[in-house]
Amino acid sequence: MKLTLLAVGTRLPSWAESACAEYARRFPPDLPLAIVEVKAEPRTGGKPVVELKRREAERLRAQIPTGARLVALDEHGSDLDTKQLADRLQSWRRDGRDVALLIGGPDGLDPALLQAADETVRLSSLTLPHALARVVLIEALYRAWSLTAGHPYHRE
């Protein structure tokens, strides 16, 4: 199984790029993590938010691996602790499909894309900056994997 993080936005600060790359590097060969960025629609020109999100969704859809399970990150998604995320990761692995995790732009994900998702997950009740959300998600996935692998990185 392969994990693909699809995120709207292409300009992360260097600290976030470094953190994402470091955690992505730690994933085992049988669970690789790819990070794919798509361009955010410019928030100038007075376009309605619904149109901005629709255009970003088109870009995301074009990058989703064929047959992948879609997991959308959304503030109204399931709130998982580390153990629950580890269980979910195990379930995804048993399913055998690749998993595409979707992070929207400044206004979130298009409603049609959210509806098409196999599931939605929330990272936090806090509002997180986009760059930090990526780091938190990748670290949480790595920690979930480490728990399933019996790695000492996770301590309960």
UniProtKB/TrEMBL annotation:
One of its GO terms (cellular component) is cytoplasm. Its EC number is 2.1.1.177. Its main location: cytoplasm. It catalyses: pseudouridine(1915) in 23S rRNA + S-adenosyl-L-methionine = N(3)-methylpseudouridine(1915) in 23S rRNA + S-adenosyl-L-homocysteine + H(+). It is found in: Cytoplasm. Keywords: Cytoplasm, Methyltransferase, rRNA processing, S-adenosyl-L-methionine, Transferase. S-adenosyl-L-methionine binds at L73, G104, L123, S124, S125, L126, T127, L128. Specifically methylates the pseudouridine at position 1915 (m3Psi1915) in 23S rRNA. PANTHER family: METHYLTRANSFERASE, RIBOSOMAL RNA LARGE SUBUNIT METHYLTRANSFERASE H. Homodimer. Belongs to the RNA methyltransferase RlmH family. This is Ribosomal RNA large subunit methyltransferase H. It comes from Tepidiphilus thermophilus.
